[in-house]
Amino acid sequence: MIDVVFLLIIFFMTTAQFAKLTRAEVELPREQGEQNRVPEEEGIVINITLGGNIVVSTEYVTLDRLELLVQEEIQRARGRNAEKVRVLIRADRNCDAAVLNRVVTRLQHMGVGAARIATEIP
Amino acid sequence: MRIRTKSSRTNVENFTLNLASMIDVTFLLLIFFMVTTVLIRPEDRLTPLLKTRSDETAAQQDFQPQRIEVLIMEGLPTYRLSDQQFTISTDLQAALMPLPKEPGIFINVEDQVPIGFAVGALQAAHDAGFTKVTYVPVS
User: Fold this and answer.
1) How far is A101 from B99, CA to CA, in rounded Å?
2) Hey, which residues 34-63 in chain A have their CB within 8 Å of chain B?
3) Does residue B130 fall inside a structural domain?
């Protein structure tokens, strides 16, 4: 019995999918979104917290550091084309747009043509 | 719990299985998975194009897209579409419906506006049928 239980524990531990900790705890804008159910590559996820902090993969980053991370993503992107870089912005709905505006301005200067803004389906 | 099996033979064999430890482990596993489970709320996205204020000015030379200004007026976050003002995104959407969709739409968002309110303008433009929605930060 003990053998079986340990076997089960090992099975669950090895098969468990540890979700990437790319998503910070933020209250997203409550909107329906595009309702396009086609799954897309996530790319770089930029979280903007209520306090106006920028978080990428659990790391608090400055705008300059964010620029470096996006540059790395551009390098990884197909054909090194900034237009094709996938950026997902997860911003807290109660935060002022000032930080979002600064992030968008930086992205635009780097040649990123579009960004996805995450919404929470009400 | 006690399970007894009787063999067909004449000699009776007692087989006892103590399940107490297994129940402990099962509950422990249950608690472990309950604690480690992350509940994810359903998410979607809006995909605006990105332009800065200077790009927007340059673009105006070629065509005149519609423009929504998202700003604070008299202490309230407001959508302004030419001379009309709205505080609810559904009203904005209704006003956007009859407009021509081809030139696209620019959404100018001021710094002080809550992000949730600004995203409401993106959603209204999308729902009104605009395919070319551009986010323009106004700092």
Assistant:
1) 27
2) 34-36, 48
3) yes
**Longest distance between any two alpha carbons in chain B, whole Å:** 103
Look up residue A76 and give its two tokens.
């990884």
- Among the partner-chain residues B22, B45, B114, the one whose CB lies closest to the CB of A88 is B45
Kindly report, residue by residue over B85-124, the tens digit of the pLDDT: 999 999 999 999 999 888 889 999 999 999 999 999 999 9
For residue A44, the enclosing domain spans 18-117
Q: Is the pLDDT of residue B12 over 80?
A: no
| Count of domains for chain B | 1
pLDDT digits (tens, 9 = 90+) for A68-83: 998 888 887 765 566 6
**In which residue are the tokens 């079986």 written?**
A4
Residue B16 lies in a domain: no
User: Would you say residue A73 lies in a domain?
Assistant: yes
The B49-50 sheet, strands edge to edge = B49-50, B133-138, B105-110, B66-73, B76-81, B84-86
